[in-house]
Design brief:
Elements (H helix, E strand, L loop, with lengths): L2 H30 L3 E4 L5 E5 L9 E11 L2 E16 L8 E6 L10 E2 L6 E2 L6 E2 L5 E2 L16 E8 L6 E6 L15
Antiparallel strand pairs: 1-3, 2-11, 3-4, 4-5, 5-10, 6-7, 7-8, 8-9, 10-11
């Protein structure tokens, strides 16, 4: 190899290195614009005061968080909804709260509450679910529920505020794939 060929190889190597250093962030910037969705952290999200929930009555609560659309981030947007059901505990024990996804596991439709103690109804295929999220047969015909699984439960906890001493319901919000027999968390 002569000196001219050596200089050509060095020049190509430097050009490739410079192009990589400059180009990689530019490519990432362009690809980030095509990503849409919601940025969720793995922490619990404070939703509602415990006193705002009536015992045994499902309450639909919006989940607020950060949404990303293209290159823009939007704070305090509705990223989903959950059904909260306050359950009466034994005397002397604190009440419990059950958190259920508001999305039907069959086709992803938004579930509706039927009546105080009858649970939930999917408006897309008329499937019914009990207040605890279990699938129920069709009350008119007795046919099997079309949903592949029960409603997806979410981690839920009660936290007492340090300043107001009010009890709050916090939920670890997650989304699940629809149409699957077992719950699969969407990323």
């Amino acid at each position: 190899m002569n000196r001219r060929e050596l200089l050509e190889w060095i020049s190509r190597g430097l050009a490739t290195g410079i192009a990589t250093i400059i180009g990689a962030p530019g490519i990432r910037y362009l690809l980030d614009g095509f990503r849409t969705g919601t940025t969720l952290d793995s922490n619990f999200i404070r939703l509602v005061r415990l006193t705002d929930l009536k015992t045994g009555r499902p309450t639909l609560v919006p989940v607020m968080g950060q949404k990303q659309d293209g290159w823009a981030r939007h704070e305090r947007q509705t990223i989903g909804r959950v059904w909260l059901v306050r359950e009466q505990a034994d005397p002397g024990q604190p009440d419990m709260v059950r958190a259920l996804s508001s999305v039907c596991p069959h086709m992803g439709c938004q579930l509706q509450s039927q009546s105080v103690d009858q649970g939930f109804l999917c408006p897309c295929h008329r499937a019914t679910f009990a207040v605890d999220g279990r699938r129920q047969p069709d009350p008119r015909t007795g046919d099997q529920n079309h949903a592949p699984r029960d409603l997806d439960g979410l981690d839920c906890r009660l936290v007492q505020d340090e300043t107001s001493h009010d009890w709050w319901v916090e939920v670890k919000y997650q989304r699940f794939e629809t149409g699957r027999e077992h719950p699969v968390i969407r990323s």
